[in-house]
TrEMBL record:
Stated name of the protein: Major facilitator superfamily (MFS) profile domain-containing protein
Organism expressing this protein natively: Cinchona calisaya
InterPro entries linked to this entry: MFS_dom, MFS_ERD6/Tret1-like, MFS_sugar_transport-like, MFS_trans_sf, MFS_Trehalose_Transporter, Sugar/inositol_transpt, Sugar_transporter_CS
Membrane topology according to the record: Multi-pass membrane protein
Lineage summary: Eukaryota, Viridiplantae, Streptophyta, Embryophyta, Tracheophyta
Gene3D superfamilies hit by this protein: MFS general substrate transporter like domains
Localization: Membrane
Any one annotated GO CC term: membrane
Length: 476
């Protein structure tokens, strides 16, 4: 048994793609025959789930006063309504991987959409706090599933030269959903805004009837004809898919010789590095302070003496613009350089914001406090949007072997949502303890994140999923 397991591990370490003598010109001709409109359409349909994610996350901020007045809610009751979203997302994160493995990537998106539709309807018709909280919990569950399955689906259907850019659209659409909800939420009633949340779900559910399932998931299930048909549909009727199909099949056949993975198996030596990378990036992303800054942007600006409305709108616009620019750079600059530049910007931003609060506490150069605070927060969100916001999700969708992707992806997503909750929950306590100390702490965590990226995270740009996972296995 030991010899057999060693042989399987050697096969995983071995390069899975043999050089077949094709020249650069011949490869270029193959690519020119690819018709990628179905890849783009499939990505558009999938990221409707990301936009729905943003709608759910951005709903509570502009509707707080109206909901409290209409339903006569106390501050603790509304606080529960706002925070229960994160608990629903944690449950969604735990179950997202097994659901996506069992019913497919499209099936998981249908499940998430159904929960979001039910949740929005419960909120729309709510006449008291209980249906309101149930609806919020349901939309949170949908968010948790979407946060895992959308980047995984896009990574599995995209050609390797587009995978980074297309997966980054996930984060862009989340930001767009949050920003649009914030802006139109000031114009619409809270019930009407809840009904608007149904639109991306409707587009997604209709689109899922048109687009193909993930070829890699079909291949893993032994559905050979459906696998080839889905891959051909994604690459175009005239494209030669033989080389890519063989690569995917060879890798999956090798993985299927291994036993089905459980959560305990993730800590075996063969998977430990990929789990460390995926979970570690989620820790760095969340514990660097993003949700504290995001949820309390207005109060930060107000505390620093800057107009909170102007600052928040600028923040929202900058987030969308920089995330969009990051999507165009990720396949050119690479994942690792973007993470490092982003991390450096986060450290500088936290130091600037921390210094502004230090000056205010000690009543030194008070005229400079608002300028430093605004500069720090805007540099923070710009830096986060440039890399640390989207790239961890891209890398997470790339590094896990398909036989553990469900379990490992659920773990990474759960860590992400737990970090989101812990950061947002502790932010006000930290600010009460020491406002400058809070941002200096975040600066230290982001500095440690830079060291983690340098020493642990591999570059995955321009490589197929099978090449990435084989290289990670070979490196342990």
């Amino acid at each position: 048994m030991e010899n057999s397991e060693n042989r399987v591990e050697e096969e995983i370490r071995a390069p899975l793609i043999k050089q077949d003598g094709f020249g650069d010109q011949e490869k270029a001709e193959k690519r020119s025959k690819e018709d990628r409109w179905m890849v783009y359409l499939s990505t558009f349909v999938a990221v409707c789930g990301s936009y729905e994610f943003g709608c759910c996350a951005g709903y509570s901020s502009p509707t707080q006063d109206a909901i409290r007045d209409d339903l006569n809610l106390s501050i603790p009751e509304y606080s529960l309504f706002g925070s229960i979203l994160t608990f629903g997302a944690m449950i969604g994160a735990i179950t997202s991987g097994p659901i996506a493995d069992f019913v497919g990537r499209k099936g998981a998106m249908r499940v998430a959409s159904a929960f979001c539709v039910a949740g929005w309807l419960a909120i729309y018709f709510a006449m008291g706090v209980v249906p309101l909280d149930i609806g919020r919990l349901a939309t949170g569950y949908g968010m948790g599933v979407f946060s895992y399955v959308v980047p995984v689906f896009i990574a599995e259907i995209a050609p390797k030269d587009l995978r980074g850019a297309l997966t980054t659209i996930n984060q862009f659409m989340i930001c767009a959903g949050v920003s649009v909800s914030f802006i139109i939420g000031t114009l619409l009633t809270w019930r009407t805004l809840a009904s608007v949340g149904l639109i991306p779900c409707a587009v997604l559910l209709l689109g899922l009837f048109i687009i193909p399932e993930s070829p890699r998931w079909l291949a893993k299930g032994g559905r050979q004809k459906e696998f080839e048909a889905a891959l051909q549909k994604l690459r175009g009727s005239k494209a030669d898919i033989s080389e890519e199909a063989v690569e995917i099949q060879d890798y999956i056949e090798t993985l299927q010789r291994l036993p089905k993975a459980s959560i305990v198996d993730l800590f075996q030596r063969r998977y430990l590095r990929s789990v460390t990378i995926g979970v570690g990036l989620m820790v760095v992303q969340q514990f660097g302070g993003i949700n504290g800054v995001c949820f309390y942007t207005s109060s930060i600006f107000e505390t620093a003496g800057f107009n909170p409305a102007v600052g928040t709108i600028t923040y929202a616009i900058l987030q969308v613009v920089i995330t969009g620019l990051g999507a165009t750079l990720i396949d050119r600059a690479g994942r690792k350089p973007l993470l490092l530049v982003s991390g450096a910007g986060l450290v500088i931003a936290c130091l600037l914001t921390g210094i502004s609060f230090y000056l205010k506490v000690h009543e030194i150069a008070l005229n400079a406090v608002p300028i430093l605070a605004v500069t720090g927060i805007l540099v923070y969100i710009g830096s986060f949007s440039a890399g640390m916001g989207a790239v961890p999700w891209v890398v997470m969708s790339e590094i896990f072997p398909i036989n553990v992707k469900g379990v490992a992806g659920s773990l990474a997503t759960l860590v992400n949502w737990f970090g989101a909750w812990l950061c947002s929950y502790t932010f006000n306590y930290l600010m009460s303890w020491s406002s400058p100390g809070t941002f200096f702490l975040y600066a230290a965590i982001n500095a440690l994140g830079i060291l983690f990226v340098i020493t642990v995270v591999p570059e995955t740009t321009g490589r197929s999923l099978e090449q990435i996972q084989s290289a990670i296995n070979a490196a342990h």
